[in-house]
Amino acid sequence: MQKRVVFRSRLLPYLLVLPQIAITLIFFFWPAYQALESSFFIEDAFGFSRQWVAMQNYVELFEDPSYLRSFKTTLIFGVSVAVMAMSISLGLAVAANRVVKAATGYRTMLIWPYAVAPALAGVIWYFLMNPSLGIVAYWLKNVGVDWNHYLNGDQALLLVIVAAAWKQVSYNFLFFLAGLQSIPKSLIEAAAIDRAGPVRRFWTIVFPLLTPTTFFLLVVNLVYAFFDTFALVHATTEGGPVDATSILVFRVYNTGFIGQDYGSSAAQSVILMGLVIMMTFVQFRFVERKVQY
Amino acid sequence: MKLKSILSATTVLAMAATTAAADKAEVQFWHAMGGQLGEIVDKFAADYNGGSDSCQINAVYKGNYTENMTAAIAAFRAGEQPHIVQVFEVGTATMMAAGEKGAIYPVHELMADAGVDFDQSAYLPAVVSYYTDTDNKLLSMPFNSSTPVLWYNKTALDAAGVAVPTTWDEVEVAARALKESGVTKPFSFGWQSWSNIENYSAWHNLPVGSEENGFASLKTEFTFNNEAVVNHIQRIADMGEEGTFVYGGRRGDSRAQFVNGETALWINSSAYYGGFKKDITEFEFGQAMLPLDTAVADAPQNSIIGGATLWVLQGHESPEYACVADFFQFVSAAEQQAYWHQETGYVPITNAAYDLSQEQKFYESDPMTDTAIKQLSLNTPTPASKGVRFGNFVQVRDIINEELEAVWSGQKDAQTALDEAVARGNKLLRKFEAANK
């Protein structure tokens, strides 16, 4: 038997959700529509004239092999950032959860990097890894690695992945820690009494109970990697060498804001939007089934 | 309580600021000069405001060149544009195209309308020619201009027993000798499209594109995949293979290599002088003219500039424009320009400022700092050496960066890469032509 609360007035429920709908329409649907519209035009920088070109902006993109390569780069980038950021932060959260002394101190320190802007995070790593100045590059040289991300595309991609992941670790840490603390102690203790070791306890009890958090973070991290990282790439590699670090969102930014080519930039953002919608759909449809709420 | 007093204090301050400026015409000046350069720009604005009864210049730093230009364009579209905006040389075609639609107040018109006696011939031809229309009328006010020079580490060259190279063949020989004497990355450069394609071409009087490097019309097409440039790029690639050239990134990223002594021959802007003077203490450095490719030309033509000019945007009141004209006169006066030149390494944009620097014996205390100006005024600029004016050029430079990086990393040979750069660049030129019909 289910208890149902029914509004007396028919209008009231609509009135109550109206602010939320208005916000969504103004701040999400309106800009998305504008992007869609602009993608069918070419326009001069100052906005004096625009011409209808139908699908030309899209056709040009898909004829450009460099743009097509970006899909692969973006996929590698996104998955690596999410996996790296989440696994490191899970490890840290588990460790921090066991600390008894000065726990708040540790936690504060681990949350700190979240306050750093993506562009700055990029610059920090850029200095650490600079082939001429960077301390990390210097260590690498001492162990025989010839580090020059200006020339080596794989190294450049690794650099932006590490920088982007580092930036996200704190955020994930916060959620994992909260998730860990909400796991009933009694379950873990019961397992311990049944002689399950810490590793076994983690994989059979803690990790499955964390899946809602993990799933949430997976979505958030992928969205972060796909959308939020252009400033980081712009501040470090500028998409190079060649196009090794030209992820899709960086191209949107570079074409629109640096190159003043609004039509192509809009077309790219529409494609990117479609991609992320698809990805999120897949996640909710297939990955969410494995989540144990 | 505390918050309240802070709030009221700010209100009072804000009111004081408005009343002080109320009887003065206010001019917004958006620029892209950070750090030491920004301090000098602020000083210029403050000095000017102090001496003017009717004008107030508000200099605002808006980020780097591209950010500043993007901000100004966005502001224009919203009807909130500044009076003056500093735009780098590659943005010239975009600004000019907007000028034809009435967004720009050309400097020659501004000066005439304000009744200022403006003598265009007082400026260096190589600087002015980059920013004039087809009737040789000045469109924007030159402010900070530089040109690439060959920076060298004298201590390292002496140790290797070689003289400063003057030709590209000598660069190869010197780089080899430097490598043997223990310099790890003997030769490098920054802003590669500017230094090794645009300036290499101008220096040897070769066009980069058709239609007078884009000055004559929007129909221009790139031609820098010619034999001379291909051979030049291939030469550098071969040096890379040999280990005597090491690529150090886009923009000025390879500066660190030169400053810490890993690189002893470095081609980049003369405007690095101010910073080098502060940062380099461990060795003696100097600057020389760009090397000559003796297979291409017997003597150098002239190099072209980089840097930025001040554009005036339409849509404000005429008393304010009178202030703009007056301020332009102020910043291009010999005293200001000589100070700017000596502090930063940018070229003095007028002959008077050059003469004043000579009078002040600047070139005796800081030898070779006139290399840039000598390079620029070596000969009367030709259609191939007065500059470049291509639409979407910011993106084209990115394409050139990408293709050259493919050469430096051995993925492509010079011919393939430059052919592709030209083909991709031409597409963007056509797009610009279509968007600015």
What is this entry, summarized?
The complex is a heterodimer of chains A (about 290) and B (about 425). With about 290 residues, chain A is mainly alpha-helical. Chain A has helices spanning about 10-40, 55-65, 65-100, 105-110, 120-130, 135-140, 155-180, 185-195, 200-225, 230-235, 250-260, 260-285, and strands spanning about 40-45, 50.
CATH superfamily of the largest domain in chain B: Periplasmic binding protein-like II
CATH-wise, what's the superfamily of chain A? MetI-like
Poorly predicted runs of chain A are none
Measured distance between first and last alpha carbons of chain A: 23 Å
Class based on secondary structure composition and strand pairing of chain B: alpha/beta
Q: How many E strands of chain A?
A: 2
Q: Number of helical segments of chain A?
A: 12
Largest sheet of chain B: 5 strands, mixed
Beta content of chain A comes to under 5%
CATH fold-type name of the largest domain in chain B: D-Maltodextrin-Binding Protein, domain 2
| Structural Rg of chain A | 23 Å
The CATH topology of chain A comes to MetI-like fold
Q: How many distinct folded domains of chain B?
A: 2
Main location (chain A): membrane
Subcellular location (chain A): Cell inner membrane; Cell membrane
GO biological process, one term (chain A): transmembrane transport
Organism (chain A): Parasedimentitalea maritima
